[in-house]
Amino acid sequence: MMLENESVLAAVVAGDGVRILDSLSDVNASALLACVADDPACWDDLALLWPRNRFDPENAEFFEGLPVRPAELDAACEALKESSAWFAIDLIGRRLLTGGNHVHVRLLRESRSRDETECETIVMPPWWDLHRQAAPSLLLKRRVPPEIPDPHREVLWGPPLTQYIASRIVSLVRAGESWIARDRGGDPCGDYDLTVLIHRDWLMTPNPLLGGVIPRDLLHVGKDWIADLADGQRFRIFENESPVPVSPELSTYARAPMGRHEVILYFDGCRETIDAGWRWLMQDPDRIEEHDVERQLASAMDDFLADWLGESSEDGLSPAEVIQCDRLRVPLVEGGDHMSDCDCPICEMLASGMLGPGFIHFDGHQLELDDEFAFSLCATREEWELQQGEWAEMDARIEAKSSRGADQDKAGDDDFAPVWTTTLVANEGIPGDSSGHLQLAFLVSDLVGSLKVNHASQADVDALNAAFRDYRKSVARNGDEAAAEFKQTLQQLSEQHAYLVSRCADLQSRIDERLRASNADDLGASF
Question: Which domain, by its residues, includes 134?
Fold first, then answer.
């Protein structure tokens, strides 16, 4: 393990020569090491990435301020050999070498191999190699530059996509397929099975414009890597700073792979565009006989897709803006209009800012609804099949538990059953939740869920949320009175709904426990 305040020697191998950085402080060494995460390919890239990785006030303000000297590769290897702590960044071969007493480097998604205090966790692009405790002479054995897949956005998001969809729609209709269906509202729409067929075939068919690669493979090259880079900038937001986007001048920026959010939006964009194609044809079914119908249809879908990308969603961001955040590798920050009509007390606390900054995250659940590997977020079929098996087991457990829970709610509380249906923080606190309000919010949410499942009146739900809201806001000023009113509301609910008796009683006791702890703290502070 590297000794505290021990300086670090670093070497950078680039296309325009080798550079040695002498006597780096531990914070500057860590910042330089972190620059690897964004896939630099030349010395200028490191300078562009330095602002993103200056997390410590003691970091050099400018990359140009670091001690740098040119060297031959042989001389650099000798310098590393004589250094007690070192690392080398090979920008040509895309590899990172560490050696000497430099701290153990662990990849973000890698299992821990030793005590976390001895590790420095880093993010690396999928095509980089990591050599821990390497011999400096390994630098002399050049690694052939890895082939980095181009995401080909001009194909996946461009005219080749709409031309393919147009061709398939026209061929299916002309072949006599029954292509008009009805949506849930009874309105005519394109047949869902045909939509899935066109989408699946587009993703899974080798494409000559992609060098024979299937489009799906390009979606999964580095989606998790990009997501990790965006998440890494959340720290700045918690410190009341602005996240630092990656510079579009980065030499590897244009060909960087899609991030997780872009992959999810690509699924939505494909489905919406296929649906738009069906609607266009429904406006005048006789168009199918025109000789240039494919061109007309593709053009109409081009216009639709462009409009869809620029249209704001309920989160206030358009798909194009979300994708741009992905490409700049910054997190999506919640704007504050979080489900204003939601009855969940946790959502209300999020909207009020009580839980700190909120982030928007797309889980991509819609990609799994068709139970098809083609659309899944899993990169490999083996991973998908394993996931399917795990979900089947989970569904069986949930169904069994749900049956027991339904019987309990209808028949009253079972003396031997758990008090709370939720397993999250029912009996344990949450780190950072010093007031205990978030833990109580999960329990109040449990009560709200039971009221809704049993078709209780909205007035009961509103009364419960209002009592908890008043308790949170006024407990610091008049704790005893606010607690008494909250407990009274719980008592009234338990009298009206037998299935809530034990949970309301437990929540009342938790409120009393917090009051006693608060009063004890106040008494101690007076001495």
Answer: 8-140
